[in-house]
Amino acid sequence: MSSRYDLHAHTVCSDGILTPAELVARARAQGVEVLALTDHDTTEGVSEAAAAAAASGIALIPGAEISVTWEGQTVHVVGLGLDPANPVLAQGLARQRAFRDWRAQEIARRLEKRRIHGALEGAARLARGSILSRTHFARFLLEQGYVRSAQRAFKQFLARGGAAYVPGKWAALPEVVGWIRGAGGQAVIAHPARYPLSAGRLRRLITEFKDCGGAGIEVVCGRHDPQANLRFAAVALEHGLLASLGSDYHGLEGPWVDLGRLAPLPESCTPVWHDWKVLRTEDSGLSSPPSVLGPQRSVLSPQSSI
Predict the structure, then answer these.
(1) Other CB atoms closer than 10 Å to residue 244's CB: what's the count?
(2) Nearest Cα to 104, choosing from 191, 15, 10, 194?
(3) 5-92+169-301 has which CATH code?
(4) Residue 237 host element (H or E)
(5) Residue 284 C-beta-side C-alpha neighbours within 13 Å
(6) What is the pLDDT of residue 294?
(7) Which regions are flagged for Low complexity bias (predicted)?
C-alpha cells in the first residue's frame, strides 16, 4: 500500500534520524507527493525541507507535533500548514522546548540514582537538533547495553511507571489549538489509538478539541493497525472531523513504517486536504512550495496538480 500524502514525519530536528533534506528525498523515493514536516515542538527544519521540496518537485506542508496535557494525559496535536514566523506560535513552542530541557536534566538525575552515569551527555550526543527527547535517552540506554531494545528502555525507565519517568507538564489543549489556528494552520489529533482513553474520555477530548477550533484526527497512522483505522474513521464521521493520515516516520528502526506506506483513508472520511487549493509555484510568485496559506488552505507546489 502507498499514499501520495504523508502528513506526519520527523527529522533530526526532533527525534528522527534523517535531516530535513534527507526526509524529503526519502519521501520522493517512496512516491509521496505532499509531505508534512511535523517535528516535536519545533519548526526548525522547515526552511531546509522547503528548499529540498522545491528542488525535488513535491509539496511541503510546514507543521509541528505539539504536546498537550489534558486531564493528566499527554496528547499530541499536529499542526498542519503553519506559518513558522508567527510570533505567538514561536513563543509557545519555545516554552515547550524549555520544559523539555528541564525534563532531560531530571531524567538524567533519576538515571544517575540508578547508577547510570553520563545519560544527559550521552543523550545530547545522539541528538542532532535542538530537541532532547526521551527517544534520545532510549538510544543512549540501548547503546550502553542497559537494555536490549528502545521499547524496553521506555518500559523499564522512561514511560509511566519507569524508574526515570518524568510526567509531562505541557500546554493546555485550547492554548495549543489557538497557537495552530493563529499561525494559519489546522489542528489534528495525532495517533489517537495510542492513548489509554475510555470511550467516554475520548468523547470528552474530541468535544473539547472541536470547541476550541480543532479540525481533524489521524485516522490512518503508521502506529495504527487496520482495526484502529476503521475505528477512527467512524469516530471522525460521528464527530464531523476531517481525516488525516501520516506514517509518523522517525526512521526504519523500531515500530515505524516507511514514508508513504499507508492504507488509504476509508471512503467515509473527508480528507483534511479536502479544501486545499493547489497552486503552481510559478503562479504564486514564491520561490518554494512550503505552505498551506490562510483560510483558503492553498498548497503551493511546483507541480501543476496534486
Answers:
(1) 28
(2) 15
(3) 3.20.20.140
(4) helix 226-239
(5) 21
(6) 37
(7) 285-295
From first CA to last CA, the distance across the chain in angstroms is: 18
In terms of residues, how long is the chain?
306
Across the range 35-61, mean pLDDT stands at 96
Start and end residues for every CATH 3.20.20.140 domain found in the chain? 5-92+169-301
> Tell me, what's the pLDDT at 131?
86
Helix 134-143, helix 119-126: angle, nearest 10: 100
Task: Find out whether 173 and 77 touch, Cβ atoms under 8 Å.
Answer: yes
What CA–CA distance (Å, rounded) separates 288 from 301? 8
Residue 2 contacts residue 260 (beta carbons within 8 Å): yes
Comma-separated ranges of CATH 1.10.150.650 domains in the chain:
93-158
Strand 59-70 and strand 73-80: pairing?
A: antiparallel
**pLDDT tens-place string over residues 91-141:** 999 999 999 999 999 999 999 999 999 999 999 999 987 788 999 999 999
Q: What is the CATH number of domain 93-158?
A: 1.10.150.650
What confidence tens digit (pLDDT) does each residue in 253-289 have?
A: 656 689 999 999 999 999 999 989 754 444 433 333 3
- Indicate whether 243 pLDDT > 70: yes
User: Which positions ≥6 away from 115 have C-beta within 8 Å?
Assistant: none
Which positions ≥6 away from 224 have C-beta within 8 Å?
A: 191, 193, 218, 232
